[in-house]
Amino acid sequence: MPLLAAVLLSSCSAASVEELLSPPRLDGEQSEIYAALRDFTSSDIILKYPKSGRYRSAFVVRNLDNEPTDEAIVFYEMPNVSDGSSLRLNFLDKHNGVWVSVYDFAASGSEVENVRFEDLGLGSLTIIVNYLMQSSSDRYTSVMTYTDSTPQELMNIRNIYMDVFDADGNGINDLFTITNERVSGNTMAGIYGTREGSSLVQLGFVPLNSGFAGIRSVTCGDCGTPGTHTTFVDYAFPDGSFGTDAVIYGNKYFYLSPVLNPDITLRISNSYTPYVASADADGDGVIEIPTSVPFPGYTDLPHAEQVNMTVWHSLDRAGTVFSEKLRSFVGTKGDYIFFFPENWGGVTAAVSISESTVVFNRYDTISDVKGEELLRLYGAADGNTDRYDNDDYIYLGRSDTTGFSYYAALSNSTLTPDAESLGQLFRLR
User: Fold this and answer.
1) Which pLDDT tens digit goes with each residue over 49-83?
2) DSSP H or E segment with residue 17
3) Span 206-221, mean pLDDT?
4) Contacts 24+ apart (CB under 8 A), 103-107
5) Helices in 182-278 by DSSP H: which ranges?
6) Residue 12: is its pLDDT beyond 50?
7) Cα-Cα end-to-end distance for the chain
8) How far apart, in whole angstroms, are the C-alpha atoms of residue 404 and residue 332?
9) What are the residues whose beta carbons fall under 8 Å from the beta carbon of 349, sequence distance 6 or more?
10) Rounded CA gap, 326 and 354, in Å?
11) What pLDDT score was predicted for residue 334?
């Protein structure tokens, strides 16, 4: 993805070099920090701003070492540097009430993506800075601590994905990364953390299914097997389809679930079928993995025209068993899930979609015939709900995400859920 050079302009008009190098309006403390940094560099600098995350200022001021006073980190660029070290970060501390530069780093990339502060069980705050690379999807993650006015870089990891969560279920956060090896083309999940008071070490290194184009979402949770903890990695292929890997921690080891592969977990997305991530879909505390299956009548159509059922699967027995758990329809806007009732277990439902209306019919797989109508779901934007304000429709709820309200019309079929059951089967996301 292209990266935009950070400049200190609020418009696209031409500007002089002096305007580019001048600092933005700073508050009192920032002005003191900026002056101390200029004293250190003895030259003009360009302040650099993180592109995402909680901290968006070039100045990050907080207590890094549990001493009485705050420290500061400043991201900046030295213009006209040709050796690749133009992006830098400077640590400043207060000596006798005066800000002083104490350490200066050459950064690991061309832009600052974000900075975050985490507890990784090291006994001190961990500073994590993600850097973007010019004209590359790679990033570098720098992991540091700060004590006695000195930062220490513990690790610098090239990756395409990074997050912090408890990957092994021991109550202490870990660093979870995904790396695409350039030479071999293999994709690896790396887990870094502490055990029994150790320093930051690599806890696991697990090969993932290769060939995907990018990471869509990563979800850490329970897969229903006692003594295990699972990280679900949802990825996208170049053709717009999706799959899931599961990195499992059990018996003191990280390993990849042996039963998952891109064919088994394959799902598609189009104007009728939104992207669906692994999630605790039914609220039972266990993460389920979705797949998409075309409804009857759509199987022979191109992927872009298919209407799909979303089938949710459980991963059991320490990741060695993958089995169907629930069948559902996910609304075209992705803002609700309708789970099929249990008495639809031996019935394949047919579905048709028209103008925010979804119609479910019974379908006989033996005779390949669509039968009686089972249920209708309606969606209406704010301001267009008056027609549903009568006893012919059951109100199901309003999505805060899309602003759509949803209603149901029941049929006389013995397979149609009653109003109470429908309220449990229909869930807003």
Assistant:
1) 999 999 999 999 999 998 888 999 999 998 876 66
2) helix 17-21
3) 91
4) 103/149, 103/150, 103/151, 104/40, 105/151, 105/153, 107/75, 107/131, 107/142
5) none
6) no
7) 30
8) 12
9) 295, 309, 340, 360, 361, 362, 363, 374
10) 25
11) 95
Residue 417 maps to a domain: yes
Report yes or no on 105 lying in a domain.
no
Residue 410 lies in a domain: yes
Total structural domains within the chain = 1
Q: Per DSSP, what are the bridge partners of residue 131?
A: 112, 140
- What pLDDT is recorded for position 353? 87
Give the pLDDT score at 68: 86
Q: What is the mean pLDDT of residues 225-232?
A: 93
Q: Please say whether the beta carbons of 90 and 105 come within 8 A.
A: yes
| Burial bucket for residue 103 (CB in 10 Å: 0-12, 13-18, 19+) | middle
pTM: 0.87
Single out the residue of 370, 55, 37, 96 nearest to residue 46, CA to CA. Answer: 37
d(CA 133, CA 245): 27
> Residue 372 belongs to what domain range?
338-429
Residue 143 covered by a domain: no
